[in-house]
Every structure is written in C-alpha cells, then in structure tokens.
Design brief:
mainly alpha, two-stranded antiparallel sheet, 2 strands, 63% helix
C-alpha cells in the first residue's frame, strides 16, 4: 500500500482540498464499475443493440428517441463544455491546453460520427439518454475544473503528458476506424446486425471500446490528476462489462460467431 501511494505521488498532482471533488472522484469510479458489473449480469444501459431489452418488460410507458437524436444529446453538452473551457481559461499552461483540446476533439469526433458515419437501427430510452448526457457533461466539466485547480502546483516528478497525447491519438484513431468498419456492414436501408469483420474485429468483438479505453488512459496521462485516473478506471470497468455482454449477445444471435474472438482484450477475454 505504501509503495502504491509513493508511485501515485510521483504520477499525479496532489488532489484539491475539496470534499465535493473527492466525493465525485469516488462516485465516478464506483458508479461506472457498478454499471459494468450490471452489464455482465444482464441489466443493460438501454442504447445500441440493448435499447429495448428491459423496456419491453416495463409496466410503465417509456419515452423513446431515435438513436441519432439520443446520441447527439449524449455528446453535444460535453462538446460545448470543452469549447467553453477555451473562453473561460484562455491563457493557462500547456498541459491544460492539451487536456482541453483532447476533450473537445473527442466529443467533436463523436458528434461527427453520429451525423456522418454511424448507421442506426434501433432507438433509445429518454431516461438513458439523460443519464449518459449528464455523465459526460459532469465528467468533462470536472476534468477541466480539477485541472484548473492544479495551476501553480509543482508538476509530478514523472511527466506523462506527451505519452498521453500519443495514447489519445492512438485511441481516437482506432475508435474512429472501427466505427467506420461497423458502418460499412450495412447497405442503404439495412438495419439488421451482422458479425463485424476486419481490423481488430478478427480478435475481439469490441475493438472500438478497447481503443476508447486507450483514449481515456490518454486523458489521464495528459491530466495526471486523481479524478482523471478514476474516470479512466471507471470507463475501463464499464466498457469491460459492456464488451462481455456484447459478446454474449452475438453468441446468442449468430450460430457461426467465431468462438476464438474475445470480448475486449485480444487472446485474453
């Protein structure tokens, strides 16, 4: 435990003396981890192929949105928060500039994919849309605010921000490429699911999640704050659960799904 604390002291800025930020750090990690476990147990966030898994069993009528509308709501407020950070904090240090740029580019890419890349087949429940939207917005705003709190503090003895930039570029590029491959599975007007092929899809069923995790580790390395670490770890646990659930879904739907294709990590699981 002492060794771990010593390593963290070399890797991250001292956490701000704020009970609210401390609580948000814990809640962010815990809630994302619980959601990941829920995915494995079959209780899914209702979007993508799982959008109607529980809604059909619900006795109450739920408001349904198109997937395109829902995902635009997911990402737009967080993108606006990223853009606003350049106006609110215009002349800060280079690390802060890198983090603001990475976050803004991340959500710009998401919106671009919704508008021009993704091909949608299902719907989305309003409750899920609001939950995910608020999660992205609050996390983005908190990442930026916590970084602002580090200004004037001594830099961590191990500087990871340039490694973080490399990981972020790798993550965002790999994520975009595999989203593009997914979009090419369907012709015009087609809505049925097919087994993805090409790229890392030959090794894992969710390479887009794998690269998203790499990008979020990039956020942490750029930021080097405890909140960014909890955000990256929480994302890892949630997307791990989602990937396992996705692999189970493909196995249940396609008799010819290749059993050697793992969920998230090539050759591991």
């Amino acid at each position: 435990m002492a060794t771990m604390a010593s390593v963290l002291q070399n890797l991250i800025f001292p956490p701000p003396p704020s009970l609210l930020i401390t609580a948000m750090t814990i809640v962010n990690f815990a809630s994302a981890s619980v959601l990941g476990l829920s995915e494995v147990r079959g209780k899914h966030m209702q979007y993508s192929k799982f959008w109607n898994v529980t809604s059909q069993k619900s006795p109450t009528k739920q408001i349904k949105l198109s997937s395109k509308t829902g995902m635009l709501i997911f990402y737009t407020p967080a993108f606006i928060a990223g853009v606003a950070s350049f106006l609110l904090f215009p002349n800060e240090n280079f690390r802060f500039l890198l983090l603001k740029s990475a976050l803004t580019l991340h959500f710009f890419k998401r919106i671009f994919e919704v508008l021009f890349i993704h091909k949608f087949s299902g719907g989305m429940i309003l409750e899920t849309t609001i939950t995910v939207c608020l999660s992205y917005l609050i996390s983005t705003a908190t990442l930026i605010y916590v970084q602002f709190q580090t200004l004037g503090l001594p830099e961590p003895s191990i500087d990871l921000k340039y490694v973080g930039v490399v990981l972020f570029i790798m993550g965002i590029s790999g994520n975009f490429y595999h989203h593009y491959l997914l979009s090419k599975l369907r012709g015009e007007g087609e809505k049925e699911y097919k087994i993805p092929r090409g790229g890392f899809f030959n090794l894992v069923i969710c390479p887009h999640y794998l690269f998203e995790i790499i990008g979020f580790v990039g956020f942490f390395f750029i930021s080097q704050t405890l909140y960014a670490l909890s955000f990256a770890l929480g994302t890892f646990f949630y997307l791990t659960g989602r990937s396992i659930a996705t692999r189970k879904w493909y196995l249940s739907k396609f008799e010819d799904f290749p059993k050697e294709v793992k969920a998230l990590i090539p050759y591991v699981y």
